[in-house]
Amino acid sequence: QVRLAESGGGLVQAGESLRLSCAASGSIYSINAMGWYRQAPGKQRELVARITTGGITNYANSVKGRFTISRDNAKNTVYLQMNSLKPDDTAVYYCNAEAVYNFWGQGTQVTVSS
Predict the structure, then answer these.
(1) Which residues pair with 25 in a beta bridge?
(2) C-alpha to C-alpha distance for 46 and 79, rounded to whole angstroms
(3) Please, what is the Cα angle at 1 between 4 and 82, to 5 degrees?
(4) 36 closest CA partner among 86, 114, 89
(5) How high is the mean pLDDT of the chain?
(6) Mean pLDDT along residues 44-61
(7) What pLDDT, on a 0 to 100 scale, did the predictor assign at position 73?
(8) What's the CA gap between 59 and 79, in Å, rounded?
(9) Antiparallel, parallel or unpaired: β 67-72 and 57-59
(10) Could you report the per-residue pLDDT of 21-52, keeping only the tens digit for each?
């Protein structure tokens, strides 16, 4: 079992920045990769960024150059630095851990006003 605790969401204006954090606990040795997904109202959940245990990253085209995913192995924490935020980035952001099963955090709201 993997437990994920997210933090860092909030309300910002367009052009500003936020950093999301996701702390993993439990069977963290079983995790192969971690990522951030988001779901806007009326839309499907989509991958934002992902990082493997080897440090390989991939991003949605819509956030490339603006968002950066990173991890602190000592703290078992993954971060999503979000710069130059746009109103289209407004969504609930979910942390994900890929192990034998997929584990999800409770989600954190990010709202970007124009």
Answers:
(1) 3
(2) 17
(3) 20
(4) 89
(5) 96
(6) 96
(7) 86
(8) 14
(9) unpaired
(10) 999 999 888 899 999 999 999 999 999 999 99
